[in-house]
Hints:
The structure holds two protein chains of two kinds. Chain A is 83% helix and 0% strand. Chain A is mostly helical. Chain A folds into two domains: 1-39; 40-107. In chain B, helix 1 (22-51) packs antiparallel against helix 7, helix 1 runs parallel beside helix 9 (155-169) and helix 7 (127-138) packs antiparallel against helix 8. The two termini of chain B are 13 Å apart. The radius of gyration of chain B is 20 Å and the shape is globular. Classes of the chains: A mainly alpha, B mainly alpha. Chains A and B meet through helix 1, helix 2, helix 3, helix 4 and helix 5 of A and helix 1, helix 2, helix 3, helix 4 and helix 5 of B.
Amino acid sequence: MMTELTAIDSLALFAILGMAAATYATRAAGFWLMGYVEITPRIERFLRHMAGGVLVAIVTAAAMNGSPAMWIGLATAFGAMLLLRKPMTAILIGVAIAALLRHFAFG
Amino acid sequence: MPSFRPMDSPAPQSAEPATFTRAGIWRGMKLTLPYSVSALPFGLAFGAAAGAMMTPAEATLMSALVFAGSAQFAVLSLWAGPLPLLAITMTAFLVNARHIVMGAALQPHFAGQPRSLVLLLGGGMTDAGWAITLQEMLRGRRDLGILLGTIIMQWPIWTGGTLLGAIIGSAGMDPKRWGLDVLIAGVFAISVIGLYRGRDDLLPWIAAVAGTAAALLWLPGNWYILIGGLSAGLAGLLRHDD
C-alpha cells in the first residue's frame, strides 16, 4: 500500500519536469525579456486571449466527448457560478448533480 | 514582431532602488491570507482529482514543482495511457503564457535587486501573488519581500492540500462515478467566467470553440488545445487595429 502511494512512474516524472520547466519559463521570461524585448499591447492581448482560449478548448473538448451527465453537470456549475459567484460551491453543486444522475439515471 | 533593443520601458516613478526586507515579507504574507484560505479547497480538489489518475507522490511533486493550478487541472484531461509528454508540456506553457506579461509588468519595480534573486522568486509568482505585489509596488512599497510573502502563504497550502486530497482520491474509486471529470471541466468553465472582461472576449472565445471543435473532428491527438488557444489569440488581435 505504501509503495502504491509513494511510487513515481518515470514517464510521469518526465511529464512533471516538462510542465515545471515550461511553467518556470513563462514566469521568468517576463522578468528576463524586459531588458531585450518590448512587450507591446498586441503581444499582451495575444497572450491573454490565448490563455483564455486554452481553457475554452478544454471545456469544449470535455463537453464534446462527454455524456449527458457531463453536460448537465457543467451547465449546473456554470449557472450556479453566475448566481452565487462562489467558484468552489458552484463546481461542487455541478459535480454532485452529475454523480447523482449517473447513480440513478445513467448507470 | 518584438523589436530587440535595450530597455527603454517606463521606469518606476521614483528612481529609488527596490528593497528586500522582513517587513515586506510580513506584509506580503498578511495580504495573501484571504487567498490562502481559498487555495486550500482548490488544492484538495486538485489532489482528489489527480489522486484518481496518479499516485499521491506524483500529484504532490507536480504541485510542488509546477505550482500553477489551472495548468495542473488542464493536464489532467490528458493524463491517460502512455502519457503524451509533448502535449502535457505544451499545455502547461500555453495556459501559463500569461505569466510572461505579468512578470514584465513587475520587473521595472524590482530595479536594484540582484537579477538572480528576482528570477528565483519570480518562479513562484501566482495570479494572486502577482496582483498583490503589483498593487503594493504601484503604491510605492517597492519591496521584493512582498512577492516572497505571497509565495510563503500559498505554496505550502497548495502542495499540502494536494497531498491530502490525493490520499483521499487514491482510495480506489471510479473517478467518473463521483463526477471528478465534471470537477475538472467545471474548474475551467468557471475560470472562463472569471476571465471575462467584456465584449472583446466573446469573439476570441467563439473562435476557440470553433477551432477546438474542428480540431477534435478532423485532427488526431491533442492538437485541439494548441488550435483552440491560437484561434483565440489571433481572434483577439483581429478586434483591434493598432
